[in-house]
Amino acid sequence: MRGIEMRAFLQTSAILLLCCASAGCASGPPATFDLLSPPTVGTLKPLSLSLVVSEPTAPRAFDTDQMIVREADGSISYVQGAQWSDRAPALLQTRLIRAIEKKGYSVAREGSGVLGDLSLSTEMSSFNLVPGAPMQVEIVLVLRLIDTREGKMIASRTFQNKVSVGSLAGADIAAAFDKAISELTPAIADWILARHL
Q1: What is the pTM of this model?
Q2: Is the CB of residue 55 less than 8 Å from the CB of residue 93?
Q3: Which residue among 20, 98, 99, 139 sits deepest, i.e. has the most Cβ atoms within 10 Å of its Cβ?
Q4: Does 37 fall in a domain?
Q5: What are the start-end ranges of the H helices in 86-169?
Q6: 38 within domain boundaries
């Protein structure tokens, strides 16, 4: 077996040891990690048109607090011994809000009672680990900016990022997800504001 193939085999084997596809195979409570960033301190400017950030939509397998591994054939398993502090779509929604706030503008969360002029809809196409040498975190988000007054979409764009994972430890996996999101969200905020201001 060639070197690259051997590394890929060992990486995938290690992931399989971490992953739990059936209930009851983990021993002890899993370590819990979040993806939250601190709120912006200070006064935020209102946007000329109020913006509501909806909770991202995701396939059922992704709408969970479990860390997901997606194989090349599309099969899905979960990392054993580590989990998110909340469902992944809810964590991502907060990160999108924080990204816009860091630009100095205030936005509303869906369900807050604000009837926005515009709505940000996000589809989580990928939010998972990808086996390989090296193993990577893959995030693919399809964003749509919707004019709720007219009932029409005014802009759409796909954002994606991949980040290598330092090790198979839960903390390193969480850090790779955090890095991938941190690299994506400033560009997402700029894209939203460029079409809004």
Answers
A1: 0.83
A2: yes
A3: 99
A4: no
A5: 88-101
A6: no
